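wait is this the right file?? whatever heres the structure
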């Protein structure tokens, strides 16, 4: 069975994940270091990990398998999931790919260095309504692809 892992701290699309996963009968793990309320949906398991820089990422990466789906904005976590044959999807609907993950990691490192040097002070653009719509469409597409992989 396909499972969806959500890096749930500050995830703006938890409801959208629930909607798509419920339609397909898929298990969801909302993983965080606290601060999210348990959900009554029997398909959703809320996982609270010990606090630490990468505790939620480690929990997800240790359990995800091929054809599972990870929803995250964390590029290193996405890389770990892709390495296991899983899908990784940003909150705005952009899918991480094997072909692009190296460049994403390099860009992340470059931007982190520029922020630390004070050269760049802004972060990513604000989450917008069209991001939510794009996320829903892409998640549906990825669920269909994952089902084909599992068949």
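ok assuming it is, sequence goes like this
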């Amino acid at each position: 069975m396909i499972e969806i892992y959500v890096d749930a701290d500050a995830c703006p699309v938890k409801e959208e994940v629930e909607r798509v996963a419920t339609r397909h009968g898929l298990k969801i793990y909302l993983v965080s270091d606290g601060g999210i309320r348990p959900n009554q949906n029997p398909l959703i398991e809320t996982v609270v990990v010990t606090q630490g820089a990468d505790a939620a990422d480690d929990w997800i990466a240790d359990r995800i398998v091929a054809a599972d789906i990870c929803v995250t904005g964390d590029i290193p976590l996405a890389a770990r999931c892709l390495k296991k044959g899983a899908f990784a999807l940003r909150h705005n609907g952009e899918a991480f790919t094997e072909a692009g993950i190296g460049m994403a990691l390099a860009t992340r490192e470059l931007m982190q260095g520029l922020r630390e040097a004070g050269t760049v002070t802004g972060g990513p653009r604000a989450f917008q309504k069209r991001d939510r719509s794009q996320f829903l469409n892409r998640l549906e597409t990825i669920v269909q692809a994952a089902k084909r992989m599992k068949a």
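The longest helix spans residues 129-150. so i think its the right one actually
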